[in-house]
Design brief:
The protein is of the alpha/beta class and about 140 residues long. It has helices at about 10-15, 25-40, 95-100; strands spanning about 20-25, 40-45, 50-55, 55-65, 85-90, 110-115, 120-125, 130-139.
């Protein structure tokens, strides 16, 4: 599927399994952060929407304004963190590399690279929208 040209209704109809959609204040800034820090690729990037690719997996970003008639919008806090309690784990991102890039890209390192008892080295990075991105690699 060509994410740059696929029609919205065809893209929507193609989605399967579990989907991730993050509401953000500024789609273009979040895309830049994710591309810079995690090496993701943004597609169909606009002020309202983006399809994000991380390896062969995709998820979506939507600007707050696109949710004008969605019941979720009224529950969003005015200030971060929006995603409290949710970890977005990226198992193919090097924690050392991520931390080297995160702060300069507007992120906040919650926990630097740390060896965990479950066999992963992890780093927790909070983006300006309040989502916790966890770069993880086997120790």
């Amino acid at each position: 599927m060509n994410f740059e040209t696929v029609a919205a209704e065809d893209f929507g109809a193609s989605l399967r399994g579990i989907g991730l959609n993050l509401l953000v204040r500024d789609v273009k800034r979040e895309v830049a952060f994710l591309e810079t820090v995690f090496g993701m690729k943004g597609h169909r990037v606009s002020s309202d929407f983006a399809i994000m690719a991380y390896g062969d997996q995709i998820f979506q970003l939507h600007g707050d304004g696109t949710y004008h008639s969605n019941p979720l919008l009224s529950l969003l806090p005015e200030s971060p963190p929006r995603g409290t309690g949710v970890e977005i784990r990226l198992y193919e991102s090097d924690p050392e590399e991520v931390c080297a890039k995160a702060e300069a890209a507007g992120g906040m390192i919650l926990q630097g690279p740390t060896d965990k008892p479950h066999g992963l080295k992890e780093a927790y990075v909070l983006c300006e929208n309040g989502y916790a991105w966890v770069a993880s690699r086997p120790i």
